[in-house]
Amino acid sequence: MTSEDLERALEADPNMPLSRGKLAIPFVGKDVPSPTNEFAHPDIVIGLTILGYRYEFLRLTDIDEVIVRLLNDVRKEPGRQQDRPSAVLYRGWVTESGGHICAGHNLSIPQRKKTHMDPSVPNAEKVESGKGVPPLALLQRSNDTQMKDIFKLLRSSTSVIQWYLEQLVFPKYMRFQSKKLSASGQELGAEMLFARRVGFSGTPTELLPKGLGRCHFAPGDDAAMFTTLTDPAVMSLKQIDGQWTVDALLEHVVAEET
Questions:
Q1: pTM of the full structure
Q2: Could you say which residues form the signal peptide (predicted)?
């Protein structure tokens, strides 16, 4: 969902699950999200979510979540500010997106500008390159100018999107059970549900639920079956040419009189 879509959805349903704002839920029709695919098919949700963020890019709120995590992590990490893993990760994203870290006071002064587009994403926005952004240690979330500059620079970055999904979205909103209960029809025909049973629907074989025991056929059933199958009035035997084909055999069967 875009920010506007999310706002409208919350107005229509204030109790909407939080996962709807982060994951791409399959829809069965206009304004009708699938009630089961969200939980029964997590692989589909993951695939659609990745495509959704690659095509629509990150929202400002998403970038804010990324910055919050990086700021929290960098405070806990040892070493010099610029050498800490979170600072290195942030600096790599900025460089990869065509920007650079500017530690001076003139952070809002635009640098040499050029634009590039990601050909792998339809309708990719032009990204201003050469934009100076503050280092992670000096970044202030309350500074709208800084946050907007970072948002424009990083919102379409494949690396940032991947990190955001793997570190923030999927671990929190894809908490599925590691094990799934399942049962076949044969298991349901055992004593698990019904203490007393008189039969089991299906082909009569020894593969019936163990609780039913062996098959008990009425006397003469097997003989009656073989008698019917070998009765000339029901079945007939005819030798066919050794060079037969499937089409010729089917045409021959259709042409036979009943």
A1: 0.59
A2: none
Contacts of 159 (CB under 8 A, 6+ apart): 92, 93, 96
Residue with tokens 């990190």: 163
User: What are the start-end ranges of the H helices in the chain?
Assistant: 3-12, 37-40, 42-56, 60-76, 85-96, 144-154, 158-164, 170-173, 185-188, 221-229, 246-255
- Strand, coil or helix: what is 29? strand
CA distances from 153 to 108, 113, 149, 166, 252 (A): 14, 12, 6, 20, 72
Cα–Cα distance between 13 and 6 in angstroms, integer?
10
Place of tokens 């029964």: 40
Q: pLDDT tens digit string along 35-79? A: 665 566 788 889 989 999 999 999 999 999 999 999 999 999 999
CA angle 72, 75, 78 (to 5 degrees): 135
| Among the listed residues 195, 213, 197, the one whose alpha carbon sits nearest the alpha carbon of residue 205 | 213
* pLDDT tens profile 160-204: 999 999 999 999 988 776 676 776 666 666 676 777 776 666 656
Q: Are 28 and 34 in contact (CB under 8 A)?
A: yes
The span from the CA of 49 to the CA of 54, in Å, is 9
- Secondary structure of 102-118 in HEC code, one letter for each residue: CCCCCCCCCCCCEEECC
